[in-house]
Amino acid sequence: MISNYKLKLIRGRSYTGNGISANIKNPIIExxxxxxxxxxxxxxxxxxxxxxxxxxxxxxxxxxxNEKWSVAQxxxxxxxxxxxxxxxxxxxxxxxxxxxxxxxxxxxxxxGENE
Length: 115
What we know:
The chain has helices spanning about 35-40, 70-80, 90-105, and strands spanning about 5-10, 15, 20-25, 30, 45-50.
């Protein structure tokens, strides 16, 4: 699984690039790409404030993707399980694609919809 790198904008009023945006009001960003995180920190505009490990083995959710997972965690899960995310940009759409693929493949993953 890929870690999420949490960074904080520490120099400048705003930053947009590498698929992320940060500004004074929203200085915290996350990326699942270590190279991007390293590049931003090396540029001295951001500082690394945390490395968040994916919580896919959490007993509370039994490793089943749900709305509590971050977008990066959902994308990691999709990549690891061969889920095509074409057209899915929003978190809800990504989760729906994962659930649809699980149902189509008949893999028996219980997404808790019948509880």
